[in-house]
Amino acid sequence: MSKRQLLLLSSSNYHGHEFLQFARDWITDFLKKNNVSKILFIPYASTEPDSYTKYTEKVAKPLKEFGFDVEGIHESRDPVEAINNASAIFIGGGNTFHLLKTLYDKRIVEAIRSRVLDNGIPYIGSSAGTNVATVSINTTNDMPIVLPPTFYALQLLDFNINPHYLDPITDDKHRGETRAQRINEFHHINSSPVLGLREGSALLVDGDNATLIGHTKAILFCRNEDPQEFEPDSDLSFLVSSS
Amino acid sequence: MSKRQLLLLSSSNYHGHEFLQFARDWITDFLKKNNVSKILFIPYASTEPDSYTKYTEKVAKPLKEFGFDVEGIHESRDPVEAINNASAIFIGGGNTFHLLKTLYDKRIVEAIRSRVLDNGIPYIGSSAGTNVATVSINTTNDMPIVLPPTFYALQLLDFNINPHYLDPITDDKHRGETRAQRINEFHHINSSPVLGLREGSALLVDGDNATLIGHTKAILFCRNEDPQEFEPDSDLSFLVSSS
Ligand SMILES: [Ca+2]
Ligand SMILES: [Ca+2]
Question: So which residues are the signal peptide here (chains A, B) (predicted)?
């Protein structure tokens, strides 16, 4: 039985709410349940030069209000040591390619994986931070502004997630692929299931149990099958139990 | 002075038109000007298994109606030889990552580049086929379903294009990045200009001259500058003259 403790948000923003506020109760319950008061934040999804401090402050503000302390990994001289000393990890959104490349550049992929899977420290991901928690970033929506050494990611789960999942717009005149068509292209090549998390929802993973939480349904795409909708509070353990 | 002859379509579909029909006159004029009656079609952007013949037939139908013969590169035993014998090349849309990876897998990147830049054979690209004609695929909208060995592409031009360019939707409740924000992230890392080609438009390149053609304006993003709009028929030679 896995020790993993994951809270994977589709996004940090949800229409009508301030930054991270829609997830206040989820974050608070998740960290309290795990007896954590301090979080190591990883701002590497931010692409703007010299923005890691600003991004960390942006995240620290609501989290402080929720009762937690936040430190940015860029404040440490040794990122691996920072991971090894962390009692919880939060990876925020931005550009998934930039994030994954920087995780590899800083050589912290294995350290994070080990802390989460072997030591059971809680992991929060949002958007790009949710993408990298899965098998691979093959189902990100982001623009490939940099080339990571591989698309394989932290593999805290052995399926894929598509965050910010978007339903097709009725009568859309645009001829680019819909999100479902893009995921279908993924399934032409790959067999991993893809969970489409709409904004305002999250996947909560406790060992081998998983629950969909939040305000919106999720949609699951399995290769050669019709997509399946799941209501909030659905038990999605069947997705994680084998991983 | 470059010999290159390029017709780069934002998309193969345009609202209210059958497949490729909106570009009928452009394709016809472009190929006639270059005395071409036969086109080698490259269907590698298609991700569906065993779909190359179907895709080639789909493209051949309107092109035949316009007066041109089409052969699929997959019909040749040797793709490099097919390129070297081609009198014109058309690369269609689909998934840009799959397309670029297959161009490298089949070892035809250099052959195409040489035929177009050294021998001046006409190149038509649409969507993904337009992406790969530029410096790199860093500004594709597609999902990264496979990992190519590099994001560098055919480099028939030395700037980037974003096909299917989309203006932000007013009052959008979705919190994913807008297209302009994604291109801004690209410019945090890269300095290459990005031409956003809206559906229904194309870039026509004749040696060192370039013209925007079609039904919609194009938008140019240069690093650290405000984006600039160009009307149809604008002279965009300043973008290509240095390349
Ligand atoms: Ca993003
Ligand atoms: Ca595409």
Answer: none
